[in-house]
Design a protein that fits this description.
The chain has 6 helices and 10 strands. By secondary structure, it is an alpha/beta fold. It is globular and about 60 Å long.
């Protein structure tokens, strides 16, 4: 009997934002997998969020998955192939595996590449939606992301934000390392912006204007530009 793999979005940081379905499936699964950036790490941000909602999670079989934050395609492919073999061996035993990811698994989630490899091995993933960081940040700031007939564009700041010139509302994610350039681009377009760093986490920080956003703001910083 084949096992089953679930990719579970645990939300942006506040464990109370985890869905009832996410909590239920985590409790039902035999193995909890989660990404780690450092091969020496034993937990991750996603795991620590889930542990607050499901304290018994630490008693389950745990599988840290090394997922380095690099752009080298060969390195990424090799780590995904290694992870796929680890997970496939568990699924072949008929086990249920939960893979934890921040936010929602359909927004900038590295697991989707891993899912393709698992699918080639005959294992289809069931996805469990989570609250996205930009929706949580907008709620924290008390400002709508989009209204009436406005369009919404989500931009990965570390790659390209040229679409800021397009009409509508925008959300900028993943700007760590290029925050200064992102801020300069916003100013050049005559836009101000608010932002939330580490939304829902203990070290959450709120910035009400571009001038407040530090150049070294962390990876989990969501920027909401003002204006259309």
């Amino acid at each position: 009997m084949k096992g089953r793999i679930y990719c579970i979005g645990v939300g942006p940081g506040d464990a109370e934002l985890m869905t009832l379905k996410a909590v239920r499936i985590i409790k039902e699964c035999d193995v909890i997998a989660y990404p780690i950036k450092d091969e020496q790490a034993d937990t991750s941000v996603a795991f620590n969020i889930a542990r607050q909602a499901v304290p018994d999670i630490a008693a389950k079989d745990l599988l840290p998955i090394f997922s380095p934050m690099v752009r080298d395609r060969k390195t990424i492919q090799e780590t995904h192939e290694r992870a796929a073999k680890q997970i496939s061996s568990l699924l072949a035993e008929g086990l249920k595996v939960a893979y934890l990811t921040l936010g929602d698994p359909m927004i900038y989630c590295t697991y989707t590449s891993l899912a393709k490899l698992l699918s080639e091995n005959g294992y289809e993933t069931e996805y469990v939606s989570g609250v996205t960081s930009f929706c949580a940040a907008a709620a924290r700031l008390g400002t709508p992301i989009a209204d009436r007939d406005e369009t919404l564009t989500i931009l990965p700041g570390v790659y390209d934000i040229s679409a800021l010139k397009h009409p509508g509302r925008h959300v900028i994610m993943k700007s760590a390392g290029k925050m200064h350039q992102v801020k300069d681009e916003l100013r050049a377009l005559g836009k101000d912006a608010m932002a939330v760093e580490n939304c829902g986490m203990q070290d959450e920080k709120i910035y009400r204007s571009i001038s407040e956003i530090p150049d070294d703001a962390g990876y989990f910083t969501v920027i909401l530009p003002s204006g259309k």
